[in-house]
C-alpha cells in the first residue's frame, strides 16, 4: 500500500520516540481517517473492525460545542411550545371564571382558568389540529432542507415564523380580545397554523443537525494522551446524543407548570408571554451555533428519484415480484440494462435503490408508532378533562401532565448511566426491538390504568357517569393522573429515543431530515385518528376508548417483537453493506492509505 502523506510537524516515528514508546510498527488491514490526525494519532483515527469492540476499552465521544448549543435550542424551543400548548386546552374549553377578565380564577373562588368556553369536543378538535399539523409540516421542512436550503437555513425560517406565532397567542389572551368571546378564536387559529410551521421546520431538521455533529462516520480507534487505545462506539455515542436531546425536550416541558399557574393566578396574557420570552433563547443560540457547525451542502432530496424508482418497480407483474422479494431488484440498473433499457435513461445507482428500499421499509416499521402515540397522548384532551372531574384542591387540572416530563428527566440519566451499562456489564442483550416492546407495554398499561381511573370517577362523582361537565368534582384525588403520565414517560424513554435512532441510522445521507419527518408524521396520523373519534369522547362512554387503546397497544407490542426480532442484525448488515461500498469507492481512488500502529511495549493493553 502507498502511504498517504499527512502534513505534520514531526515524523510519526519521532513522535513515538518522544512519547517513550518502544515500538513502531505498521498494521495491515486498517484504514485511517486522516482529517483527525494529531500528535497522538499522527496518521489520523483507524477505522475499527468488529473484533476491536471486544479488544479495546469502549467509550462514547464527547459532544462538540455545536452539539451542546443545539440541545439548548431544543430545550428553549420545546419550553416555548409546551408552555403555550399546556394552557391552550383550558383557554379554549372552559369559560371565563366568575368575575374574571383575563381568564384567572378570582380570589376566594375554586375551579380552573378558562377563556372561550367552547367545550371539550371543540377544544379537543382544535388542539388535535395543532398536533396534526405540527407533524405534517415536517415532511415539507425535511424535503426543503435535503433538497435546497440545508438544515440550518430551514430551521431559521421556522425560528422567525415562531415569533409571529407567539405574538398571535398573546393578542388572543388580551382582556379586550377575550371579552369578545368566540371572535377571539381567530388569532388562536392563526397562531396554531404559524406555530405548526415553526415546529415543522425545526423538528424535522434539528435532531439530524445534532447527530451530524458527531465527528466520525463509523466506529474508530483513537490513542489518548496516556497512550491507551480506545474504541469509540458510534452507535452508543449516537444513542447518548439522542437520549439527551429527548431529555432536553422534557426539561423544556417544565415551563408549562409556570404557564399553568400564571393562567390561574394572573391571566392568560402572562401564560402566553412567558413562552415568547423563552423563545428568544432559541434565536440567540442559533446565531451562536452557525460558526461551529460542520459545513453542509444540500445533495438533492431522495424523494424525486425514489418516486421514479417506485414507478419503475410498479411496472409489470409487481405483485409476483413482491411475493418473491424481488420488487426493488426490478429497478437495479443492471437488471434494467438486461431488459434493454438504455443506460443513459437510468438516473440512479444500485446502491440508491437499496437506500430507497430501506426508507420505504422503515415506513412500515414507523406505522407501529401510530398506536403508541395514541396511547401516549391520552386520546387528546381526555386526560386533562378526567383530571378536571377529580378533586385537585386548587391545583390546575392541566398541571399533572408535567409529571410526564419529570419522569423522563429522571429516567433518561438512569438508563444512560446505570441501566444500560449494567446490562452491558453482565452481557445481557437488550436490542432495539426489546426497547420498543418495553415502551409499548408501558403505554398499554398506562391506558388500562386510565380506564380504571375513569370508571372510579364515574362511580364516585355526584353526577355519576356524567362527571366531565359536573359542577362538583369526584372525591378521588386528581394526583392519580400521575400514574398514567409516569408510565407513558417511561415508555417514551424506550420507544421514542430508539425510534429517532433507527430513523437517523438507516436513512441515506441525502434523506435524513425527510426520514426523520416521516417518523414524526406518524404522530400526525395518531392525531387524525384522535380527531376522528372526538365525537365518541363524551360521558358516559369514556371508559371504552382507554380500554380499547390498551388492548391494541399490547397487541402491537408483541406484533412488533415478532416481526422485527432480527432488526439489529438487519441494521448491522446494512451498515456493513454501506461500509463495503465506501471501501470499494476508496479502492478506486489513486491513493491508498497505509495505517501505522504505535504501541508502548510496557503497556498491558493492546496498542495501535
UniProtKB/TrEMBL annotation:
State the Gene Ontology terms under molecular function.
Answer: transmembrane transporter activity
Entry keyword set: Membrane, Transmembrane, Transmembrane helix
The record's subcellular location field reads: Membrane
Map out region (Disordered) in residue numbers: 577-608
Task: Give the record's membrane topology.
Answer: Multi-pass membrane protein
Record's keyword annotation contains Transmembrane helix: yes
Q: Which Gene3D superfamilies match?
A: MFS general substrate transporter like domains
Q: Where mainly found?
A: membrane
Query: Which segments cross the bilayer?
Result: 157-178, 184-202, 244-263, 269-289, 363-383, 403-420, 436-455, 482-502, 514-533, 545-567
> Per the record, GO CC terms?
membrane
Source taxon at top rank = Eukaryota
Cross-referenced PANTHER family: OLIGOPEPTIDE TRANSPORTER-RELATED (PTHR11654)
| Family, per entry | Belongs to the major facilitator superfamily. Proton-dependent oligopeptide transporter (POT/PTR) (TC 2.A.17) family.
The identity of this protein, by name, is Peptide transporter PTR2
Which species does the entry assign this protein to? Pichia kudriavzevii
Lineage, top ranks: Eukaryota, Fungi, Dikarya, Ascomycota, Saccharomycotina
Amino acid at each position: 500500500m502507498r502511504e498517504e502523506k499527512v502534513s505534520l510537524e514531526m515524523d510519526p516515528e519521532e513522535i513515538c520516540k518522544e512519547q517513550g514508546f518502544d515500538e513502531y510498527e505498521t498494521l495491515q488491514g486498517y484504514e485511517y481517517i486522516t482529517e483527525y490526525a494529531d500528535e497522538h494519532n499522527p496518521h489520523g483515527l483507524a477505522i475499527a473492525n468488529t473484533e476491536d469492540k471486544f479488544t479495546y476499552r469502549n467509550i462514547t465521544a464527547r459532544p462538540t460545542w455545536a452539539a451542546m448549543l443545539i440541545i439548548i435550542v431544543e430545550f428553549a424551543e420545546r419550553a416555548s411550545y409546551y408552555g403555550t400548548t399546556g394552557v391552550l386546552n383550558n383557554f379554549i374549553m372552559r369559560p371565563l371564571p366568575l368575575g374574571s377578565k383575563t381568564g384567572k380564577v378570582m380570589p376566594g373562588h375554586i375551579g380552573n382558568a378558562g377563556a372561550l368556553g367552547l367545550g371539550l369536543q371543540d377544544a379537543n378538535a382544535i388542539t388535535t389540529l395543532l398536533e396534526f399539523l405540527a407533524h405534517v409540516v415536517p415532511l415539507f421542512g425535511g424535503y426543503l432542507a435535503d433538497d435546497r436550503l440545508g438544515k440550518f437555513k430551514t430551521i431559521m425560517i421556522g425560528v422567525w415564523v415562531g415569533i409571529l406565532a407567539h405574538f398571535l397567542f398573546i393578542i388572543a389572551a388580551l382582556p379586550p380580545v377575550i371579552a369578545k368571546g368566540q371572535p377571539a378564536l381567530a388569532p388562536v387559529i392563526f397562531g396554531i397554523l404559524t406555530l405548526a410551521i415553526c415546529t415543522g421546520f425545526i423538528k424535522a431538521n434539528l435532531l439530524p443537525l445534532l447527530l451530524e455533529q458527531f465527528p466520525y462516520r463509523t466506529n474508530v480507534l483513537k490513542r489518548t494522551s496516556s497512550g491507551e487505545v480506545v474504541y469509540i462506539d458510534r452507535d452508543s455515542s449516537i444513542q447518548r446524543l439522542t437520549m439527551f436531546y429527548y431529555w432536553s425536550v422534557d426539561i423544556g416541558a417544565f415551563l408549562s407548570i409556570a404557564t399553568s399557574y400564571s393562567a390561574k393566578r394572573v391571566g392568560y396574557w402572562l401564560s402566553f408571554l412567558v413562552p415568547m420570552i423563552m423563545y428568544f433563547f432559541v434565536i440567540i443560540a442559533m446565531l451562536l451555533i452557525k460558526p461551529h457547525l460542520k459545513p453542509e451542502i444540500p445533495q438533492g432530496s431522495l424523494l424525486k428519484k425514489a418516486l421514479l424508482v417506485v414507478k419503475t418497480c410498479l411496472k409489470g407483474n409487481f405483485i409476483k415480484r413482491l411475493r418473491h422479494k424481488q420488487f426493488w431488484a426490478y429497478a437495479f440498473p443492471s437488471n434494467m440494462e438486461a431488459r434493454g433499457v438504455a443506460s443513459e435513461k437510468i438516473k440512479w445507482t444500485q446502491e440508491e435503490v437499496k437506500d430507497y428500499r430501506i426508507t420505504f421499509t422503515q415506513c412500515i416499521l414507523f406505522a407501529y408508532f401510530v398506536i403508541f402515540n395514541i396511547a401516549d397522548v391520552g386520546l387528546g384532551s381526555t386526560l386533562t378533562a378526567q383530571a378536571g372531574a377529580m378533586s385537585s384542591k386548587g391545583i390546575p387540572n392541566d398541571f399533572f401532565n408535567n409529571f410526564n416530563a419529570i419522569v423522563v428527566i429522571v429516567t433518561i440519566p438512569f438508563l444512560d448511566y446505570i441501566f444500560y451499562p449494567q446490562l452491558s456489564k453482565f452481557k445481557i442483550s437488550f436490542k432495539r426491538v426489546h426497547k420498543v416492546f418495553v415502551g409499548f407495554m408501558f403505554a398499554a398499561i398506562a391506558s388500562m390504568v386510565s380506564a380504571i381511573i375513569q370508571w372510579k370517577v364515574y362511580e364516585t362523582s355526584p353526577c355519576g357517569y356524567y362527571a366531565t361537565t359536573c359542577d362538583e368534582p369526584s372525591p378521588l384525588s386528581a394526583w392519580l393522573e400521575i400514574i398514567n403520565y409516569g408510565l407513558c414517560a417511561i415508555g417514551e424513554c424506550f420507544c421514542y429515543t430508539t425510534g429517532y435512532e433507527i430513523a437517523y441510522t438507516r436513512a441515506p445521507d441525502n434523506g435524513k431530515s425527510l426520514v426523520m419527518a416521516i417518523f414524526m408524521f406518524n404522530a400526525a396520523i395518531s392525531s387524525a385518528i384522535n380527531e376522528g373519534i372526538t365525537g365518541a369522547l363524551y360521558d358516559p362512554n369514556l371508559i371504552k376508548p382507554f380500554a380499547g387503546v390498551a388492548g391494541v397497544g399490547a397487541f402491537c407490542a408483541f406484533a412488533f417483537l415478532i416481526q422485527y426480532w432480527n432488526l439489529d442484525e438487519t441494521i448491522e448488515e446494512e451498515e456493513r453493506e454501506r461500509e463495503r461500498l465506501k471501501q470499494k469507492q476508496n479502492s478506486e481512488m489513486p491513493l491508498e492509505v497505509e495505517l501505522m500502529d504505535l504501541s508502548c511495549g510496557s503497556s498491558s493493553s493492546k496498542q495501535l
